[in-house]
UniProtKB/TrEMBL annotation:
Domain Helicase C-terminal: residue ranges: 463-623
Protein's name in the database: ATP-dependent DNA helicase RecG
Gene behind this protein: recG
Gene Ontology BP annotations: DNA recombination; DNA repair
InterPro entries named among the record's database cross-references: ATP-dep_DNA_helicase_RecG (IPR004609), DEAD/DEAH_box_helicase_dom (IPR011545), Helicase_ATP-bd (IPR014001), Helicase_C-like (IPR001650), NA-bd_OB-fold (IPR012340), P-loop_NTPase (IPR027417), RecG/Mfd (IPR047112), RecG_dom3_C (IPR045562)
């Protein structure tokens, strides 16, 4: 394609616009747009040999062609190829169909063969007049969008393939992870776009063919190269060197805490301290299962920065969470003389102005808040450490904005990103290769494992009794209402109804209601009542999903659990089991009209019962959903792998990880060409 990316959109035809929508702009983009599957039009099958479910091409004579009205209007065409007959059905058709399919015509048709009590049938087969040359190669079928017909796309791909620069970018004598040796990129692409008919379909489908190996390796290498480049660029930046003062705030906070740190907390604390003491910005991901105690680790890091005369920011994804962090941190830090400010969207103007002033003057050493912290008018005096809680809930742009809050020339703040959604090793190695990772792999002592039960919604009454029993022991209960994605209003009705039911069933108990549409002050009032223990049951939509910490709560009921994603269920369950009491999680499920649960829903609920280990949950989640959805917000940054599959291609990933630094050191021009071929202009975002 010769058109340049900057040509004005209005001059584009519909298919050209569609190409752009698919990101197919450069020749190389088209060349790398690989078929979803292939159709075999290289031979004609006898109807007698066709098996049910096969997509085949036949040549036959039309013996009947009629319109019937039952069970609905359709064109029924019977054909005979001498070996057997087949009935073709068309539900949408034009007079031209009837003409082309008139009795006596010989046609060539292709479609999926099905059995049936009338014999073989095909639904809406493609057809044309019989005769004409057979294809010599398999016909590629490309992923496409509306307005971009396959034949147009095929021609565009061929043009791209012919014009693209496919010269070698692998260093000479580079090792290769496949004993069959590397195919050249050109050969691999030629082959995948137009495989010869003798190829094993299985090797194409499971992507084990050497041509696929070449593409997957190329893709993984591009990803590793771009992330390593970003990391090296960041390593050239400067950040304030923050050293722990003996007997300083860090020590005072440790001494004031009502608990001692776990071994894992101490270890990651040291990893972070080592980063802060360097003059390059930290870029560290702190992973730890829900309840592992990440907040205190972040607070301790903040103490080091504040002691050195700098400011810190802590950003959380929801107001509830930000509020809770604020309360907790004020409790810990104000006795030590550290002033904490907070910024949230719904704050009163007067309060906000006061807070902004404290942040700008440096009077507030720590600022806690939501996205409000990264708004343009928020000016820090000297920000040195930015902590992002539940980082997977933030996009790349937001992380970049927080980094931009550093005012000192040429410097960047240290960044600590925290996440309770553990990332399986292969994902971390591939998507987060530019990050350092610390893991809290140990829960604070004294926690008893949460027992999880899956119970049909029809046994709701028993669950309500169970709530009564927990309350009688002085415990508290969460009841989370279903997520109905199409309608926030429905979510609300549901929660309101449950709230009314529980209030009635549990006389004398304070039952609260929390949902996202409530004014912030009201949310806060409800949360305060629950946190202080006065409220026994909190009915909520998923606003409590992340981070909420009420150790006395020991029962979590999740209604319509089948509608939640696995990591979300795990997060919700993590709201209990935070104190010493034995805790339980009840997953109520409804089966709807079908009377049974879908397969993936069942798998998710099974995983919840079988394990409470966040890493295992994450692994299964990845298995059930695939990395695309799993990565969530990160999607906007890292280009997802299109060809490689992290579940099966770990050896290829290892190969790419080893080769990337060698290439950057010894063959920088090759590395650059490789990255721009694969990522084009998209690699900018990876620096976040
Ligand atoms: P998360 O990692 O999910 O953010 P939090 O930081 O909210 O977890 O900690 C969960 C609870 O455990 C909090 O009440 C916190 O004060 C407490 N906690 C943290 N570390 C310890 C520890 N070492 N011993 C006992 N309790 C701890
Ligand atoms: Mg947390």
């Amino acid at each position: 394609m010769s058109e340049s990316p900057s040509s004005p959109a209005k001059t584009l035809t519909a298919p050209q616009k569609a190409l752009r929508k698919l990101g197919l702009v450069r020749d190389i983009d088209l060349a790398l747009h690989l078929p979803l599957r292939y159709e075999d039009e290289t031979w004609i099958v006898k109807l007698a040999d066709a098996r049910e479910g096969d997509t085949v091409q036949i040549e036959a004579t039309v013996t009947a062609c009629e319109i019937t009205m039952r069970p609905r209007r359709q064109l029924l065409v019977t054909v005979d190829d001498g070996s057997d007959t087949c009935v073709m059905r068309f539900f949408s058709f034009y007079p031209s169909h009837q003409k082309a399919l008139a009795v006596g015509n010989r046609i060539r048709a292709r479609g999926e063969v099905r059995g049936g009590f009338m014999g073989l049938t095909m639904m809406h087969p493609h057809f044309k007049a019989a005769g004409g040359a057979l294809s010599t190669a398999l016909t590629p079928v490309y992923p496409t969008v509306a307005g971009l017909p396959q034949p147009y796309l095929r021609r565009a791909v061929i043009t791209g393939l012919n014009h693209a620069d496919l010269s070698e970018t692998l260093p000479p004598q580079a090792p290769w992870p496949d004993r069959r040796g590397p195919w050249s990129l050109r050969d691999a692409l030629q082959f995948l776009h137009h495989p010869t008919p003798d190829v094993s379909m299985a090797a194409l489908e499971d992507r084990s063919h050497p041509a696929w190996i070449r593409l997957k390796c190329e893709e993984l290498l591009a990803q590793q190269l771009s992330q390593l480049t970003a990391k090296r660029e960041r390593d050239r930046l400067r950040a304030p060197q923050l050293r722990q003062k003996p007997g300083g705030l860090h020590a005072s906070l440790l001494a004031a805490l009502p608990f001692g740190l776990t071994g894992a907390q101490q270890r990651v604390g040291q990893e972070i301290a080592a980063d802060l003491a360097r003059a390059v910005p930290m870029h560290r991901l702190l992973q730890g299962d829900v309840g592992a105690g990440k907040t205190v680790v972040a607070a301790l890091a903040a103490m080091v920065a504040i002691d050195a005369g700098w400011q810190c920011a802590l950003m959380a994804p929801t107001e509830i969470l930000a509020t809770q962090h604020f309360a907790k941190l004020v409790g810990w830090l104000e006795p030590l003389g550290v002033k904490v400010a907070w910024l949230i969207g719904s704050q009163k103007k007067k309060e906000r102005t006061a807070m902004l002033g404290m942040v700008a003057s440096g009077e507030a050493a720590l600022v806690v808040g939501t996205h409000a912290v990264i708004q343009e008018h928020v000016k820090f005096k000297n920000l040195a450490l930015a902590v992002i809680d539940e980082q997977h809930r933030f996009g790349v742009a937001q992380r970049l904005a927080l980094r931009g809050k550093m005012q000192e020339g040429g410097m960047e703040p240290h960044m600590l990103m925290m996440s309770a959604t553990p990332i399986p090793r292969t994902l971390a190695m591939s998507y987060y290769a530019d990050l350092d990772v610390s893991v809290i792999d140990e829960l604070p002592p004294g926690r008893t494992p949460i027992v999880t039960r899956v119970i049909s919604d029809s046994r709701r009454d028993e669950v309500v009794q169970r709530i009564g029993a927990q309350l009688a022991q002085g415990r508290q209960v969460y009841w989370v209402c279903p997520l109905i994605e199409e309608s926030e209003a429905l979510d609300l009705t549901n929660a309101t109804q449950t709230h009314a039911d529980l209030s009635e069933a549990l006389p004398g108990v304070m039952v609260g209601l929390l949902h996202s549409r409530m004014p912030v002050a009201e949310k806060k009032a409800v949360m305060d009542l629950f946190t202080s223990g006065q409220m026994g049951v909190l009915v909520s939509t998923t606003v409590i999903e992340v981070g909420v910490d009420v150790p006395n709560a020991s029962l979590m009921v999740i209604e319509h659990a089948e509608r939640f994603g696995l990591s979300q269920l795990h997060q919700l369950r993590g709201r209990v089991g935070r104190g010493a009491a034995a805790s339980a999680c009840v997953l109520l499920y409804g089966t709807g009209d079908s009377g049974r649960l879908g397969e993936t829903a069942r798998e998710r609920l099974r995983a919840m019962v079988e394990t409470t280990d966040g890493f295992e949950i994450a692994r299964r989640d990845l298995e059930i959903r695939g990395p695309g959805e799993f990565l969530g917000a990160r999607q906007s940054g890292a280009p997802l792998l299109r060809f490689a599959d992290l579940a099966t291609d770990t050896p290829l990933l290892d190969w790419a990880r080893e080769l990337a630094p060698v290439m950057l050191d010894r063959y920088p021009p090759l590395a650059e060409r490789h990255v721009s071929r694969w990522l084009g202009g998209k690699s900018e975002y990876l620096k976040a």
